[in-house]
Amino acid sequence: MTATNITPSEITLMLTVTDASCGQAVGTPDLQPYSSGDVTFVMSCTAGEQPRPAEVSAQSEAGPLVPSSIAVIIGLAPVAEPQWSALWWYVWLGVPLSLVGVVPPYLFWLNRPRGNTRRVRTEERFQHTSDQPTGGLEPWWDPRYLKFSLPGITSDWSFQDNWASSVGLAAALFTTVFAGGDSLDAIVGDEAQATLGVVAVAAGLSTGIIGSGPLWLTIFKRRYDDQGGIAKHNTIGGVLVASIIVLLGTTGLLFTAAAAVALPLAWILAAIAALLLLVYAWKSIPQTLALGRFGGGVDQATSVSASL
Question: Within this chain, do residues 269 and 130 fall inside the same structural domain, yes or no?
Answer without folding.
Answer: yes
